[in-house]
Amino acid sequence: MNCISVKNVSYKYPYTEGFALKELNYEFEKGKCYGIIGANGSGKTTFCNLLRGMIPHFFEGELTGDVFIEETDVRNWDSNLLSTKIGYIFQNPFTQISGIKETVFEEIALGLENLGMEKEALIDRVIEVVKLLKLEQLIKKNPNNLSGGQKQRVAFASIIAMNNDIIVIDEPTSQLDPESTAEIFSIINLLRNQGKTIFLVEHKVDLIAEYSDEVIVLKDGQITLSGSTQEVLSNMDLLQMGVMLPQASMLSYDMQKANKQLDSIAITKSQVIEQIKQRVGV
Amino acid sequence: MDYEFINSFKKPQVQNNWFLDLNPLSKLNIILILAIIPIVVKRWEVSVVIILFYFLIAAASSRLKQFSKVYVRLALLIGSLLFIMRAMFIPGEDVLMKIGFLTITQEGVDHGLQFATLVVAICGALVLYSVATQARDLMLVLEKKGVPHTATYVILSSLQSIIDLGNMSKLIMESQKARGIETEGKVTNRIKSFFPILGPLFLGAISNSEEKAIAMDARAFYAPGKNTHLRELRPVSLSEKSVLILINLVFVGFIVWRVVG
Q: Which PROSITE patterns match (chain A) (predicted)?
């Protein structure tokens, strides 16, 4: 079942000449994780804003074509209700903290307060999320004084607490160190396992290879390649679109060149290990 | 998991201090009366008594250190400045001293003393309220009184923005220093290095405010329906209401007596 459909969509920001998104068509199914990749300026964040309904509700401009969120035209959605349906996490961990709460526990509860949840249920829900994301040590800390990685985890917790069916995640690890990146991706994996529909913009293609079910490649505001993660991330054309191939794919191609090719082009480390194990008979 | 901390949200937030635990609006009421008394009486002795009373309240609320730290500096700066300006420039007949073209008169000194202590007393009310009341508690009460949560958010967020801007300016100054720009030493050096950062500082703040609006939207900030509150304050007790009514009645009586008398 589709949760979002995009039909012939083009979009131009106000006071700009060119279109940031051009003739996009895609059907997004419920419960899948979609990786969105592309070079800088390819329209990834604009695409996120479209999927989240920020376009046309927050960002004005020229929108043509149709976007259906759960079979209702995005233009007919009450923008205030969209936030209860679609969660949004973006790259800057510093601006995602409300700045008005003095503890992480209260920060996570903010969205639920806005939704009008009763206090007992609210506390239980926050406890659940704190445990899920292993934030026990942070709950009494001031969110304004946390590190970037911790703030990003709190931002995730705040959105997860609201239990949205769809979550748009725009470059969540671009400002984080490898350790924090790993923590964030373990949270994304958790969301996948909960059956959420995830839109994940990420430059680290190795992580996209690990976690996405389908991948969409954007270039100059257009979808230039899309399909299953295996199909897309093993396609050498990606390099011409300004996107790196996963290390596993590069290794597979290098082995092919050296006439030691694997059974298929691997896109993840585990696939490479598996194929090499089979070859050497371990 | 610290369940003691979590369970603290299930009860009203109290600090076990009679003054701190007053409802923020009751505190505001009392402090406003204290600030208005010297305006009505117009005697420096009354202002001084009120100022001393602030210190007593601050001590009784275990906020003496925080209050004194801010207030003494502010009082010395504003008080001395206002006193000197008034004492030097208010004309009078009873000349005390002449310094160049300036004539200091008894009338000027009296006026300076009265005006300086009055302003310092008013400032004291503001400082005392700010150290004895958390802004978020005041906003919570205002929200419950019907003030839109957008307005309370803007106020709380602006207060945090002041801290954020301060931190950001320090960060930019550090980076400037790392690039070899002199940010210390002479005042002229400091000014020269400070002004160029104002542009990026405020542009950054404007750009962040857009992201913050998106982040708040993602937290259902504009969701229809009434929002709830995790924190709650102690309900205003009957005794607190009674004392407050009594104080207000005495104050109104005092004003009437001053006006009629």
A: ABC_TRANSPORTER_1, ABC_TRANSPORTER_2
**Which of A170, A115, A140, A149 is closest to B219 using CA atoms?**
A115
CA A114 to chain centroid, in Å, comes to 24
Instruction: Find chain A residues with C-beta within 8 A of B163's C-beta.
Output: 144
Nearest CA distance, B97 vs chain A (angstrom): 54
* pLDDT tens digits for range A66-95: 999 988 999 999 888 888 889 998 888 888
Q: Are residues B75 and B112 in the same domain?
A: yes
* Closest Cβ opposite residue B215 in set A96, A112, A120: A96
Based on the domain organization, do B19 and B123 belong to the same domain? yes
End-of-domain residue from the set B199, B218, B237: B218
User: What are the structure tokens assigned to B169, written together?
Assistant: 């300016």
Exposed/middle/buried for residue A110 (C-beta within 10 Å: 0-12, 13-18, 19+): buried
Q: Which residues of A touch B223 (CB under 8 A)?
A: 80-81, 83-84, 114-116
Rounded CA-CA distance B37/B41 in Å is: 6
**Which candidate, A175, A172, A192, A229, places its Cα nearest to that of A44?**
A172
Residue B204: both structure tokens together: 């950054």
Select from A83, A94, A100 the Cβ nearest to the Cβ of B223. Answer: A83
Q: Where are the alpha helices (DSSP H) in chain A?
A: 44-51, 54-57, 79-85, 104-114, 119-132, 148-161, 178-193, 205-211, 229-233, 247-257, 269-280
Residues of B in contact with A112 (CB under 8 A): 228
CATH H superfamily, domain A2-245 = P-loop containing nucleotide triphosphate hydrolases (3.40.50.300)
What distance in Å separates the CA atoms of residue A210 and residue B79, rounded to the nearest whole number? 67
Neighbouring CB atoms inside 10 A of B186's CB total: 9
Distance from CA of A260 to the nearest CA of B (A): 49
Q: Are residues B164 and B82 in the same domain?
A: no
Taking the Cβ of residue B165 and every Cβ of chain A, the question of whether any pair is shorter than 8 Å is answered with no
Amino acid at B67: F
What is the 8-class DSSP label of residue A117? -
Quote the CA–CA distance of B30 and B251 in Å, as a whole number: 10
pLDDT (tens digit, 9 = 90+) per residue, B15-44?
888 899 999 999 999 999 999 999 998 889
Q: Are residues B116 and B166 in the same domain?
A: no
- Distance between A3 CA and the closest CA of chain B, angstroms: 18
Q: Please give the Cα distance from B140 to B153 (Å, whole number).
A: 10
Which of residues B115, B133, B151 is at a domain's end? Answer: B133
Task: Determine whether the interchain pair B211/A92 forms a contact, defined as Cβ–Cβ distance below 8 Å.
Answer: yes
Which chain A residues are Cβ-neighbours of B164 within 8 angstroms?
99, 144
Query: pLDDT tens digit string along A139-177?
Result: 999 998 898 889 988 998 999 899 899 999 998 888 778
Q: By the 8 A CB rule, do A69 and A53 touch?
A: yes
B8/A contact by beta carbon, under 8 A? no
ipTM of the prediction: 0.82
The boundaries of the domain holding residue B182 are 142-218
